[in-house]
Amino acid sequence: MRLDKFLCDCNLGTRSQVKKDIKAGCVTVNGVIVRTPEQHIHEKEDKIAYQGQYCTYEKYIYYMLHKPAGVVSATEDRHERTVLELLGDDRRGDLFPVGRLDKDTEGLLLITNDGVLAHELLSPVKHVEKEYECHLAKPVTEEQKLRLEQGLDIGDQIPTKPAAVRILEDKKITLTITEGRFHQVKRMVHAAGNEVLYLKRLRMGSLRLDPRLPKGSYRRLTEEEQEDLLKEKTRNR
Ligand code: URA
To answer: At what angle do helices 115-122 and 223-234 cross, to 10 degrees?
Structure first.
C-alpha cells in the first residue's frame, strides 16, 4: 500500500493533506523520515509514525449513519448527493452502504468496508430483521395489520414473508421484515390497502439507530455494537 493511502486510512487527513505532511518530514517508516508519498509500505510489518506517534491501520471500519431524506444510498452518483458524501474527510475509497434505503427514506444506514458482514446482513437466506417506523396515509385497520403479519402478494413471484407489526398511533406503526426486496415496505403497505407517507429505518439485526444521532450525522459503532453485529458473520453457518 502507498504511504499516503495508509495515512488517509488511519484518518490522518485527506490525500493532499497527508502528502504535504509527508513532504514536510512528519512521517517516519521504521524510524527513518520518508518524504515520498508514493513509497510502498507494508501496513502490518512496517512501523509508521506520524509526528512521533505510531499509527495503527484499521482493516475494517463501521459507521452508523442517520440518513436524511434527499441523499441516495450509493457510493457514486452523477446527479444526486450520496450517503458517502456525508462522511466528509472520513470517506475512504473502500467504504460502501450496506443495502439501500430509498432517497426519501431516513434512518439507520451502516457504512463499512466489510464485504463479508454486508453479505451476511443482506443475504435473503439469513433473514436478518429490519425494523421500520412508518407513517401512514390512513389509520391502520386490524385487517391491514393481519395482512402484513401474514405476508402478502406485492406483485413478485412469491408473496412476502410474514412481518411483525406494532401499532404506535392510529397512523403510525413499526414494521419488521426479514427480506430486502425493492421498495418492500412501501409495496407491502400499499398491497395491504394503505400508503406510506414517511419511512425511517430503526434497526438492522442487532444494530439500533442511536436516538441521539442527529439526522445527517454519523459515528463509529461502539465496541459492543460492533461485537454484536459481527456475530451475524457466524450466525446460521
Ligand atoms: N422499504 C421501502 O419501501 N423503502 C426503503 O427505503 C426501505 C424499505
So the answer is: 70
CB 180 within 8 A of CB 122: yes
Determine whether 90 is an active site residue.
no
Residue keyed to cell 504511504: 3
Tell which one of 132, 173, 178, 197 to mutate to probe ligand 1, the residue whose CB is within 8 A of the most ligand atoms.
132
* Residues 76-120: tens digit of each pLDDT: 999 999 999 999 878 878 899 999 999 999 999 999 999 999 999
Among protein residues, the one with the nearest Cα to ligand 1's atom 4 is 183
C-alpha cell at 148: 402484513
Q: How far apart are CA 133 and CA 147, in angstroms?
A: 17
Are 163 and 188 contacting, i.e. CB atoms less than 8 angstroms apart? yes
Q: Which residues of the chain have pLDDT under 70?
A: 234-237
pLDDT digits (tens, 9 = 90+) for 151-172: 999 999 999 999 999 999 999 9
Q: Is the CB of 86 under 6 A from ligand 1?
A: no
